[in-house]
Amino acid sequence: MQTLGPVERWMAVLLAALAGYVDSIGFLQLGGLFVSFMSGNTTRMAAGLAQGDWRLAGTAGLILLLFVTGAMAGALIASGAGPRPRARVLAVEAALLLAAALAAGLGRPVVAVACMVLAMGLENAVFIRNGQVGVGLTYMTGALVKIGHTLAAAVRGGALRDVIPPLMLWGGLTSGAILGALAFSFGGLVALYPAAGLAAALAVASGRVRAT
Questions:
Q1: 212 part of a folded domain
Q2: pLDDT single digits (tens) 106-150
């Protein structure tokens, strides 16, 4: 987050909120599995294997594969020829989330979840730099570690304000997750339409920022 400009930081917070929103919906739909938090899915897969719960292990493993596929696609899109790579990545993410909402409306929850996982893997390529993820948007372990390290540095005389960027990122995901859970309780997977709209709006905004 420290390497991002002010506009980029707010975009990162909104994208973290989007990830929290979608992940919360996916968690409730899947009954304990995630569409963006792959550490949790890895643990669930391992526990399923150890306990002989092949359905759990297989579902978690398939989600992991889809997430990696989405991340790979995002990296390829971001590194492709042409201007405004962030806008391209976000546009594809918006299309995937829209497809998920449409699939849910047609009674195809499996297709909807698959599109959600692909979208979450893809999102992490928005701030890709030199082939590496600049900001993790769909997982907060790194941000929480950064908060802890920054607080330790502040105790030794460092600047406490440096804790604000990772705290904003974590707060964005948390707020989005709360909204996602509330939206799911009213509309189920159809609550993905606002997520698709936000991704599309960020794609347009990112394109305009790059253009200026």
A1: no
A2: 999 999 999 999 999 999 888 876 655 667 777 777 778 888 888
d(CA 17, CA 19): 5
Determine, yes or no, domain membership for 49: yes
Model pLDDT, residue 106: 93
Q: Which domain holds residue 139?
A: 6-205
CATH at residue 20: 1.20.1250
pLDDT at 1: 53
Number of domains in the chain: 1
Label residue 155 by pLDDT band (50, 70, 90): confident
- Kindly state whether residue 161 falls inside one of the protein's structural domains: yes
Decide if 210 contacts 51 (C-beta within 8 A). Answer: no
92 falls within a domain = yes
Q: For residue range 163-212, what is the model confidence (pLDDT) as tens digits? A: 888 888 889 999 999 999 999 998 899 999 999 999 999 999 887 765 44
